[in-house]
């Protein structure tokens, strides 16, 4: 997000304002997935206890992959368009070196973002102790995982939809970003 600011041009303002849309959705979605996992385990989430989550909770696994791909700037997410737009602002300013630095930093970030995906799908499930479910008085407890939180699931779905929609419906969002950036002093 600093690349469009450093570019100090109109396309940089639009790039920054556009990128804030998918980035916000990816951040909210990723934190919602982590919160759901923390509630299941009743413990802080680490890469170790993300092991197997993609298979245990397919919605949360696919959503987290989408968010990680978006943070890395891969299609089909708005993160790809946002990074491309930010790099375009630097290129238009004449800072090809900054574009190269940004691409190298993106390549390095792939290692970290894909570590989460690897943990969810390619590591054996650790001995997880799921949090016990609360049973109303008079009911019989049945084993298994805690009930899924509908609000968190809805938040994850909306964030994932927005992350992908910001890749598909680029033009309306760029138009909004252009209108908002017109008030910035460039």
Q: In this structure, how is the largest beta sheet organized? A: none
Category by helix and strand content: mainly alpha
Radius of gyration: 20 Å
Number of helices: 8
Give the overall silhouette: globular
Describe this structure in words.
The protein has helices at about 1-5, 10-40, 55, 60-70, 80-95, 95-120, 150-170, 170-180. Helix 2 (about 10-40) runs antiparallel to helix 4 (about 60-70), helix 4 packs antiparallel against helix 6 and helix 5 (about 80-95) packs across helix 7. It has one domain (about 1-125, about 145-175). The protein is mostly helical. The chain has 8 helices and no strands.
Summarize this structure briefly.
Helix content is 70%, strand content 0%.
List keywords for this structure.
186 residues, single chain, globular, mainly alpha, 70% helix
Helix and strand arrangement:
Elements: H1 2-7, H2 10-41, H3 53-56, H4 58-72, H5 78-93, H6 96-122, H7 150-168, H8 170-181
